[in-house]
Design brief:
Layout: E1 5-11, H1 17-25, E2 29-33, E3 40-48, E4 51-57, H2 69-81, E5 85-91, H3 95-108, E6 112-117, H4 119-124, E7 127-129, H5 131-138, E8 142-144, H6 153-165, H7 177-193, H8 203-211, H9 215-224, H10 226-247, H11 251-267, E9 272-274, H12 280-291, H13 296-337, H14 342-359, H15 362-378, H16 380-394, H17 402-410, H18 416-422, H19 429-438, H20 447-458, H21 463-487, H22 509-543, H23 549-565, H24 570-588, H25 590-602, H26 609-620, H27 623-635, H28 646-652, H29 658-670, H30 675-685, H31 688-715
Parallel strand pairs: 1-4, 1-5, 5-6, 6-8
Antiparallel strand pairs: 2-3, 3-4, 7-9
Helix pairs in contact: 3-11, 7-8, 7-10, 9-10, 13-14, 13-15, 13-21, 14-22, 14-27, 15-22, 17-18, 18-30, 19-21, 20-21, 20-28, 20-29, 22-27, 23-24, 25-26, 26-27, 29-31, 30-31
This protein binds guanosine-5'-diphosphate (GDP) and magnesium ion (MG).
């Protein structure tokens, strides 16, 4: 029996490869792994006109660089396994972008057939494509298909059979401008004459990869011929330097520009025409001319974010007040219903104060999430990524880093855990590490309550403005930290930006509510479980061990003495004793001892031991900071029936003032990420080393910053 014909489906993510694969193979398929990596390998069999065919669904990629595992897997498969025919699945509704990968296939000189997929979608959008012309210009057979219905697949397979019989598939020659072409003309003959990797790659392709600084190819050529490699690398470095000075661009970027230029020149020759103009994509383009304009774009962005804050804070106030009143009433009724003792103390100070403090912020978080959902669902967030790329590039990051930052709280509210996971879309490992280590600097949903509390207590006249400033500060610190990391532990080049701008659309109310609710519910669930547990644990740490019987007796006898004296100020004096007793109790407790021990360092930043207790609790989860401060201040409270909110207590406390507030604020924003985030960092980076690194790096940085703020603030007499 003949060996089955071997075909591979390749193309951009979402171009419909898997749909086509399923259509071809039906149930005769299985999923495995490519050796050594966690990328799915789908393989199946089918027969067509008496030919048995083996088909592979390659991972979707936008390019064939060495930056991501998927791209390496795809290109290694193509050159090592040598499929008889490669079917390039191209999304017809997104032609220009998809052909970028096609360019690289034709440069590789592999046997290629283009499946122009989703022609139904293209038609609906008013895009008409002349497939024959496209095929002629690319010198590759092109067949329109609809993978979902199987329309056109037979014609495609016939072309596959024909292509498999063709004797040769010479690589296409793209032009890259005089600088790059000049260098290629020098090095390609050298590669050819020494047969450097020519069994696997066309010489020109190897040359291009060397100019692109492709790590995998550099390693291979180095191993094969180190002398020639040295001269070629020198040539490549000289070129890089030249392009940097003349065009302010890296060779990779110039190469990418020329590929797009090649595609544009093909498409402009009457390949694509529009049948109607009232296209959503077209309208999007017009909007984008303004919204992503170099000058107006960032202004619009700042304005939109500011409106988001004003909206959130102005509209949520009344709900916050209601919730706080509700928890106040709840605490009072528990107080009157239960007898004094540890159970009552635990329910009021551990459960109601702790969880109530967190839930009280739900309205703010809900409004914030709603605003973000509007930006996300409308397609505006992708524009933010697009505009931010230039800035991000400067800091050694990538435009795609913006999503992880925003998810982590870049527009305040969010969570670093999904943020760390969202870095998976970044292709370069170093840019990815720099992003995942700096996203915890953003103001996640859990930090919001603390920020709101402190801003409310000390800077209440300009709440929205200070929240906005806190966001700007978070971005600044994250970007500087990224730059620092990229210059030290994560040194390396940046990758050029390729990202799609989805068309604008009106968000649906249902979609908005679902998004808002999902995130709010996550927050509430955390409050109900983790935070409840930690709140009770911290209550226990703050309550035990209690004072010795002698000490308690001492306070008791002082009280009795005062009562017996019948002095006119007896009541206030007893209250004073009560306060002293409560404070002595807290100091004596486990938590108090930890907090006091830490004072030796923290006093330089202006934190007293109660704040320290809360900050230590915040390691477990940032929400705990508010609840712990609540518990600490109510346990040490002079008058137990007092319902003054924590905010007012902080305002009145002699240990606190605006300078301390600012210093605490800075520390909370930037010190160690919560435990769950650290676990996520460790698992995403594949090493606990990075988990510990982020804990230490962030805490040391935050401490230095807070000490600076406190010392300078005190010097200037701003307290
Ligand atoms: P892959 O990432 O390349 O494997 O893409 P998938 O096969 O998962 O397809 C992405 C999406 O496009 C799915 O929702 C498919 O149902 C849809 N899709 C695929 N082919 C077609 C097509 O020809 N027409 C339409 N309208 N949708 C398609
Ligand atoms: Mg797929």
């Amino acid at each position: 029996m003949n060996k089955p014909l071997h075909i591979a489906l390749a193309g951009n993510p979402n171009s419909g490869k898997t749909t086509l694969f399923n259509h071809l193979t039906g149930a005769r398929q299985h999923v495995g792994n490519y050796p050594g990596v966690t990328v799915d390998k789908k393989e199946g069999f089918f027969s067509f006109h008496e030919n048995s065919i083996r088909v592979i669904d390659l991972p979707g990629t936008y390019s064939l660089t060495a930056y991501s595992v998927e791209e390496l897997v795809a290109r290694d498969y193509l050159v090592n396994e040598r499929p008889d025919v490669v079917v390039d699945v191209v999304d017809a509704s997104n032609l220009e972008r998809n052909l970028y990968l096609t360019c690289q296939f034709i440069e590789l000189g592999i046997p290629l057939v283009i499946a122009l997929n989703m022609v139904d979608v293209a038609k609906k959008r008013g895009i008409k494509i002349d497939t024959d012309k496209l095929g002629t210009l690319l010198n590759v057979p092109v067949f329109p298909v609809i993978a979902r219905s199987g329309h056109g697949v037979d014609e495609l397979l016939n072309a596959v059979l024909t292509t498999s019989l063709a004797p040769e598939h010479p690589p296409a020659l793209l032009r890259y401008g005089s600088d790059i072409d000049g260098v290629l003309r020098e090095i390609v003959p050298q590669i050819e004459s020494r047969n450097l990797l020519t069994d696997t790659y066309p010489a020109r392709w190897t040359g291009l990869k060397i100019l692109e600084n492709d790590e995998q190819i550099l390693e291979k050529v180095q191993a094969a011929d180190s002398d020639l490699t040295r001269t070629m690398v020198q040539r490549s470095e000289a070129l890089t330097h030249h392009l940097k000075t003349t065009l302010d661009a890296f060779p990779e970027a110039v190469i990418a520009d020329h590929r797009y230029g090649f595609i544009k020149s093909i498409l402009r020759q009457g390949v694509v025409s529009r049948t109607h103009d009232n296209d959503r994509l077209y309208t999007s383009d017009k909007i984008d001319k303004i919204v992503t304009n170099r000058v107006i774009g960032p202004l619009i962005m700042a304005a939109i974010l500011f409106v988001l804050y004003s909206f959130t804070f102005n509209f949520s106030t009344f709900l916050v007040a209601w919730l706080n009143a509700f928890f106040g009433v709840l605490s009072q009724s528990v107080d009157s219903m239960l007898p004094d003792g540890p159970v009552k103390s635990m329910i009021i100070s551990g459960v109601i104060d702790g969880v109530g403090g967190v839930l009280g912020f739900v309205p703010i978080i809900m409004f914030m999430f709603f605003g973000i959902a509007v930006l996300e669902d409308s397609g505006y967030l992708a524009r933010v990524a697009f505009m931010m790329d230039r800035v991000f590039h400067f800091f050694g990051l990538h435009g795609s880093s913006v999503m992880p930052f925003i998810v982590s709280g870049g527009i305040a509210g969010g969570c670093a855990v999904p943020g760390v996971m969202a870095t998976r879309t970044l292709r370069s490992p170093k840019e990815r590490m720099a992003t995942l280590l700096t996203v915890p600097f953003m103001n996640c949903g859990a930090k919001l309550p603390v920020l709101t509390l402190i801003i409310g207590a000390f800077f209440s006249s300009h709440q929205a403005r200070y929240m906005f400033l806190a966001t700007v500060a978070a971005w600044l610190v994250a970007l500087m930290a990224a730059k620092f990391l990229r210059m030290t532990v994560l040194k390396g080049e940046s990758t050029p930006f390729v990202m799609e701008l989805p068309p604008y659309r009106f968000p649906t109310m249902k979609g908005l509510f679902i998004h808002t609710w999902e995130r709010t519910w996550q927050y509430i669930k955390k409050a109900g479980t983790v935070i409840l547990g930690i709140s009770i644990l911290l209550w226990a740490m703050m309550t035990y061990p209690g004072l010795s019987p002698e000490q308690t007796a001492g306070f008791e006898s002082m009280r009795q003495e005062i009562s017996a004296s019948q002095a006119p100020d007896a009541k206030t004096r007893i209250q004073h004793i009560n306060g002293q007793e409560a404070e002595a109790k807290l100091r004596y407790s486990v938590a108090g001892r930890i907090g006091i021990a830490l004072e030796s360092v923290s006093r330089y930043a202006g934190f007293d031991w109660r704040t320290n207790i809360a900050l230590v609790g915040g390691f477990a989860a940032k929400e705990v900071i508010v609840s712990t401060l609540g518990t600490a201040y109510s346990l040490g409270e002079v008058d137990p029936g007092n319902t003054t909110s924590l905010k007012e207590r902080l305002e009145k406390d002699p240990h606190w003032n605006p300078v301390v507030g600012l210093s605490v604020l800075a520390f909370i924003m930037f010190y160690a990420p919560c435990f769950v985030t650290i676990v996520a960092i460790a698992s995403e980076s594949g090493s606990w080393k990075w988990g510990f690194f982020s804990m230490a790096f962030n805490t040391i940085f935050a401490l230095i910053l807070s000490v600076a703020i406190f010392q300078i603030g005190m010097l200037l007499g701003l307290a």
